[in-house]
Amino acid sequence: MIVDVVNPNTTGSMTALVAEGARAAAGPGTTVRAVTSRSGPASIESHYDEALAVPGLLEAVLEGSATGADAHVVACFGDPGLDACREVARGPVLGIAEAAMHAAVLVGRSFSVVTTLARTAPRARELAVRYGFGEHCAGVHACEIPVLELETDPLARATIAAACARALDDDDSDVLVLGCAGMTDLAASLSDELGVPVVDGVAAAVGMAQALVLAGLSTSRRGEYARPPAKAYAGELQRFALR
Amino acid sequence: MIVDVVNPNTTGSMTALVAEGARAAAGPGTTVRAVTSRSGPASIESHYDEALAVPGLLEAVLEGSATGADAHVVACFGDPGLDACREVARGPVLGIAEAAMHAAVLVGRSFSVVTTLARTAPRARELAVRYGFGEHCAGVHACEIPVLELETDPLARATIAAACARALDDDDSDVLVLGCAGMTDLAASLSDELGVPVVDGVAAAVGMAQALVLAGLSTSRRGEYARPPAKAYAGELQRFALR
Amino acid sequence: MIVDVVNPNTTGSMTALVAEGARAAAGPGTTVRAVTSRSGPASIESHYDEALAVPGLLEAVLEGSATGADAHVVACFGDPGLDACREVARGPVLGIAEAAMHAAVLVGRSFSVVTTLARTAPRARELAVRYGFGEHCAGVHACEIPVLELETDPLARATIAAACARALDDDDSDVLVLGCAGMTDLAASLSDELGVPVVDGVAAAVGMAQALVLAGLSTSRRGEYARPPAKAYAGELQRFALR
Amino acid sequence: MIVDVVNPNTTGSMTALVAEGARAAAGPGTTVRAVTSRSGPASIESHYDEALAVPGLLEAVLEGSATGADAHVVACFGDPGLDACREVARGPVLGIAEAAMHAAVLVGRSFSVVTTLARTAPRARELAVRYGFGEHCAGVHACEIPVLELETDPLARATIAAACARALDDDDSDVLVLGCAGMTDLAASLSDELGVPVVDGVAAAVGMAQALVLAGLSTSRRGEYARPPAKAYAGELQRFALR
Amino acid sequence: MIVDVVNPNTTGSMTALVAEGARAAAGPGTTVRAVTSRSGPASIESHYDEALAVPGLLEAVLEGSATGADAHVVACFGDPGLDACREVARGPVLGIAEAAMHAAVLVGRSFSVVTTLARTAPRARELAVRYGFGEHCAGVHACEIPVLELETDPLARATIAAACARALDDDDSDVLVLGCAGMTDLAASLSDELGVPVVDGVAAAVGMAQALVLAGLSTSRRGEYARPPAKAYAGELQRFALR
Amino acid sequence: MIVDVVNPNTTGSMTALVAEGARAAAGPGTTVRAVTSRSGPASIESHYDEALAVPGLLEAVLEGSATGADAHVVACFGDPGLDACREVARGPVLGIAEAAMHAAVLVGRSFSVVTTLARTAPRARELAVRYGFGEHCAGVHACEIPVLELETDPLARATIAAACARALDDDDSDVLVLGCAGMTDLAASLSDELGVPVVDGVAAAVGMAQALVLAGLSTSRRGEYARPPAKAYAGELQRFALR
């Protein structure tokens, strides 16, 4: 099976990192294709960034569907454009926040999210509530490292580890969720260090995508997620018009 | 005060209709500027349409803010891009679903939404829940008229009126909410006919925008809605990069 | 349009303060009439006070409706008698807690309430939950200044400002709501000082009342809020019997 | 132990009926004192009636507390003035809607309420949600018999029985709750007829009042329900001022 | 009336303690029969213990029903096997966590639970949510004393009292709930010491069981709690097969 | 990887069916071991059955963990004993209701459950709420076929298909969930017939178990799900005592 992992920001080095995390969690028989969006922000750290990442993301998903993808993972913790992707992808589409939170409640009572900038914390909480996990999400904690500095800041890992430890203490939670695709490489070692499950959304999403495909499940075409009605599009996004 | 009403689809005739509804609800001393998005779908009837309407909407909001808008109304019942608009607009930003639902719970116990296509009904319900009105939203009903046919279908008003009457009966609700900006001209006469408050989101949003401005309130810049961090943007949306 | 602002306690000096706040938020073309209840407690600081303020409040609303009020604002943060007022007023009726919370969620993600006595804090929380804003209300904080000392205590403003600052820190919220009509004069300066929107319920309620009237909306007469059935009343409240 | 059952409307014949229901559910060693309010509406069928019943109710509770009542039951299904009563009563105070709903969830999965006028149905639903039983309350059904006609309408029992049967079918519930103190005499025979538990709030409240007293529990005086602060009262309700 | 109080662990000395608490809360005319389970764990401190206590508990309830019990109390704060007991008992069945939480919300706004081991705290929170009291349950605090050491640890009472005081402060609650049947003897003195209602679930459950019986209420036989279908049982639990 | 699928009822033919469904959803490299409980009910159709199935289930999970199972699936839609299994299993443990509901919300907006006997429907609803999917679960429908007749009743498939079609219509849902392990063989053909995703919990659980194992995740040992404290067990379940 082919699982496409789309990095909806336009930074290729982050895609490489994500690809590694995705491949580590893929089962035998699964091919992971990692894709970088061709337009939009270099990193996603605001609602504005998120909104403007979606056209590039949709393009990648449409192309992936046309070239054999059996499932798609959107590798940004804000889960941008998820509903729109579901309408046009052939197979199931998973967001990494969504997948991480689903996995987290399967291995513990309550989870803490450790994210990048504090400004993204309320969004993570909002997603938890929207997905049904308001009671399980015990807190969201920021480490105040911008997304693109996760790769370059020599103190990044230590800062994140400290935020994780503090989160467990403050929230009395039993599971950690890493709140950024760029932290995918840290989950295993943080779990060893902290003695709790540390959920990386990239791995969780790849696993759940596989699970859905193996079970023969894809997005429902009854109602909300049916293929969008064909219509005219104007201006620079004109090529997105579906026939 | 200047209130910008942005039609995030690219159909100018609909903007004209919306402008009329907006002006009727504006108080003395308020100038309503009606704006049509320059790129994206001709009408918004799917998550896909919604997502691809947002860049054009953001452009209109950025321009409006730069040219004196004190508040902004996003005139599509899916409330696309609301959070992103809030980050970059100078004044408050209101969605019409949001404003309509807020108004509805102030004049009754429970409301029914009458919307266009059935595929948009779950989205309306989701918004009600997200805004805190899950207990107040008694039902969402579709009249199955596409957005752009609201203006042209000679039976549109009768069909909508019938859906409204059925909604009140089925849901035991006491307020109606019209689920599309293109229905703005129907609220008053439907209210007379049905004997209940019928909320048009355009009017509600203009009124609430005025209320916030008069009270000296605008989107908080503490945390989530602070101005987005400056960063590089790649590809065709490059010009959206904030400095 | 005429908006009646009723102070449901019997302290005239507080009405004067409230009138000022209300007029500052009224648009051109709106006349604010400020009314003091003729019977009941000098201030409202308990459920007992609240319950016993309602007959005087209802009297004021009935009189206001009979003399041309287009909308009514109940200027006590406990929102006493709101449902009863709605049944008998000609136009819409807004409580200041209700209006403040509605405004707060339109300009931020989560709000903290700063109120007078600690004993009223759970009531504020209860109202937030009842109105649908349980997830948005991040905390309620008391400054332990009795209502009537807000006007006389020289340290009142400083104490409230300190409570506001603490609330933002403790709750990680981005909007403040002032939990007493008697704080209406502080909103603007506290907002300047603290750098976040500070919502005064009096201003918010006047603005929302205007918005509803401009949109042609008033309380539904279908079902719960229909005019109460006529019936006999006994004892000292006999004159309240509706025909 | 002495349990006061206060009928907050001013109709003595209804008090007599309620007294009987209360005594039937009282254990050995419990004296039930039934009290009729001295001022306010002859029956409670609106928020307006409810609000204006509260002063008379508070008077009865204050007198009862001063003359030895160990607990108080407020015998109106809208639970008027409950919080205020709790602040000034010596012992615990139970509303009959509250007690009925508590009892209902202890003997089944979900309950249907059968009430008098349709206009009171949303209030019953609101109480269920407020008490925490939104998920358990499967529906509220009106029989459209005014409160005072429950005693005189020869078809009342049959109409109520039919509404109960319909409620079980429509709601797929397993418990019924009678939504008016004036239905207290019907619970046992309806239960026999319908084969499900039928909860009368008067009996439930007396039983729970006893349970609390036997367990040594009364309303907390820490915080919200502490005795109200002493203060001046103006106008006709002046005598309610607490010292 | 006969109320059976079943201790679902197999430690007789704890049953004796529970019996005393139960009898103190029983009204005149009520006989309390205290029963110790014959199989399973010596104390219940995990989901595993809870699950394995249920067969012994069911045996005790079946025997009690056959020998005249009018109601049953399950004296473990995890409320093990409650639904199963309800299906097979003749009269109503109360769990002590359930009863304690019901009582707590009747005498205050919000309660804190003080329990034994920290590992049981999330379970207490889960029960609060399941019963509808998620908004009322302000916190759950552990004193880290194993169940069986409650009777032997000379510092147990002091440790629990300290946890109670801390809970009130941390949670801003106004009622305490003791989270273990083995704390039944402490409620009265802790209430005196701390000045708030302290709810012991054993007393609360006995009182509520009486209330239900006096009101003629028992578990509904319509639907979920009807007698289980007869069927074959295999292996060592074979004798549990119902005919 | 080894995934143990435990049938917690004692009917071997049903285990065989379940094994087939499980194997069909397992990825390459996964060995499914299907196990039948050695004690308890022949089928699970009540809370009583469920409770008495748990000792046999725990035995199977303990044995499986000791013999190399990397994950466990509990193949009964009531998810019996899940928390207890999690405390003692080496790897993650999935219930089939839990897994099915998780999968359902990933491929649609709202799901309907089609279950066996009506008496189990409220339990399915309760699980949906407990897992966070109360808003997504649009309805639970019974086909009134006892569990063991699913295999023998020649009309079973047709009856279930009809219930599924009715559920989609009544609930306006877009996904179906089969509410019994014994329906595992029907999912694919029903999905073809009805044109919506039909989720079989057995397949979903196997897939999610694999996803968790591949992501290196297992039940947290911090807090609630730590290994239970060692202690004495009395009576016939004595051998369950952990050291």
From TrEMBL, chains A, B, C, D, E, F:
Record GO terms (molecular function): amino-acid racemase activity; hydantoin racemase activity
EC assignment: 5.1.99.5
Enzyme's top EC category: isomerase
Organism superkingdom: Bacteria
Alphabetized Pfam families for the sequence: Asp_Glu_race
Catalytic activity: D-5-benzylhydantoin = L-5-benzylhydantoin; a D-5-monosubstituted hydantoin = a L-5-monosubstituted hydantoin
Gene3D superfamilies: 3.40.50.12500
Family statement drawn from the similarity comment of this UniProt entry: Belongs to the HyuE racemase family.
Matching PANTHER family: PROTEIN DCG1
Protein name: Hydantoin racemase
Protein's organism: Quadrisphaera setariae
Organism taxonomic ancestry: Bacteria, Bacillati, Actinomycetota, Actinomycetes, Kineosporiales
